[in-house]
Every structure is written in C-alpha cells, then in structure tokens.
Amino acid sequence: MLSQDVIKQHQAAGRISQTCLLQGAKLIKAGASMRDVLDAIEKNIQDMGGRIAFPAQISLNNIAAHYCPTTTDDIQFKEGDIAKLDIGVHLDGRVADNAITVDLGSHDDLTKASKEALQAALKIIRPGITLGEIGKTIQETIQSYNLQPIRNLSGHGLGHYQVHTPPAIPNVDTKDATELEEGQVIAIEPFATDGKGAIFESANPTIYTHTHDRATRNPYARILLKTIKSYHGLPFAARWLERIHGAGKTRIGLKELHRIGALQAHPPLPEQNDGLVSQHEHSVIVQDKPIIFTKLD
Length: 297
Ligand code: MN
Ligand code: MN
Hints:
Helix content: 25-40%
Shape: globular
Number of strands: 16
Strand order of the largest sheet: 7-6-8-15-16
CATH architecture of the largest domain: Alpha-Beta Complex
Bound molecules: manganese (II) ion
Largest sheet: 5 strands, antiparallel
Radius of gyration: 19 Å
CATH superfamily of the largest domain: Creatinase/methionine aminopeptidase superfamily
Strand content: 25-35%
Structural class: alpha+beta
C-alpha cells in the first residue's frame, strides 16, 4: 500500500506535470523553435517547484517518441506537423508522466484515436483487471478508427526515482492474465498510427540514462559523470550537458560513456512504415476509485 504522503507527492507532481504539459502545448506553433519550447517547459516545471523526471521531449510526425534537440540542432515546427509532447515531473522521486498530441495539420482521427483509447483504458482501471484486457480496450478503440496501435511501445509502472518499472501496460491484446494490484502507480500511453503499428530504434540518441558505474580515464567522460550523477539515475538530455560543458566535450564524453556501458541510450523511435503517430498519456494510482493524478480537477 502507498502511504498518504506518497500519494500526495504523486498528486502534487501530477498537477505540475499537467499544467506544464497544457501550457507547453500552446507554445507548439508553426515557425516556433522546438528547443525554445522545451527549454520554456523545463523552466516552468522548476519555477513551479517540480523536478524534471526526464527530458521534456517532442517527437514529430513519424517519430513516436524520444526526440530531443541539442544545442547545435533544432527544429522549427511546420504547418501539417503532428507533435507528441511528453513530459515528466517528480517530487522526491515520486514521478508523474503525461503526454499530449498537438496537431498542426488536420490529423483529426489520428489524434482522437489515441486520446479515446486512453480514456477507454482509464475507465476500466481497477485492482484485478488484467493487462491483456487493458491492451484489448486500447487496440479496439484505435482500430475502430481504421488505425493501428503501436504494439512494441507500452505503458509502465512508475517507481521511486524510476520512470519505467514493471508491469508493462500493453497497447494491444496480449492475453496477458497478470492483474493490476491496489496501490500500483502506472502510466498508460496508447500510440496510434496510420502505419504498420510498430517502431524501431534509430540512431543519434540525445537522451540517456546512467545505468552502470564504470571506470574511465577519458577526461571528458569523467567531467560529464560528475554532472550526470546529480540526475539520480533518471534520464537526461545531452543538451543539458552541452549547456554546462560545451557541445564538443559532451559529444566525446557521451560517446565514451556509452562505449564502456555506463549509459543506456534512448534513440528516437520512428514508425516502421513511416506512418504518422499520435500519443496520449496519463499517470494513475490503481485502486477501486483510481486516482488519475496527472488530470487537473
Ligand atoms: Mn511519457
Ligand atoms: Mn511513459
């Protein structure tokens, strides 16, 4: 069981997370700089007293997730883009994770499909519901729009200073009979696409997690590690390091840290058939009356 204090921390993190998500979504307009938008959102999180649980990220069009600009690369939004804004906030390690789709084109069905799938899944959350039933609900809702759920992306548990813990919450009917339990903290995140319904891991990651303590003699890697340790094992953006250490040292240091196995990289995730992708996400505490703590009252 979760203590009332822990529930309250999730709820407070959730209010900040949803407020910054909705305010950030309004900044996504044709001609705006993606980096400016993400910097503004991350500043807003901290101004509201939250901590960043993972880099605010915006994935466009056929990219489902994990895109983040660097200090040297940026993207301008264009008319017709479909943007997924995904942000995470924590308070003392208690995480809120939520995402929204901003449609700069006329991708009405695509946007609605993941939104309705999320709403349908949230309606059936309770202790005892199976993971397969949640996936089935998401899949059926998205397919009712003649679109496909992305089967190799899933929701997840939220741990203390952990953004991804078991159980994986499927977006398709896996028949998994594992039941949700009272007191679990989970994120549900359906992705809809007009493509094949699967993503792959591409190259050029800009988001990483420090996963293993490894010794290195590389001076740049050693400098970066000092900063990286302050992220509590939560995901971080290369851009954050570049602002402190410069783009050149950061590139060399990250390459070395990844090579020696200290870091897990999270590269952008494009759809396998280059389909367009939408996503919606909320975080929930599982109980008879579930607490959707990234929703504002
Ligand atoms: Mn998310
Ligand atoms: Mn998530």
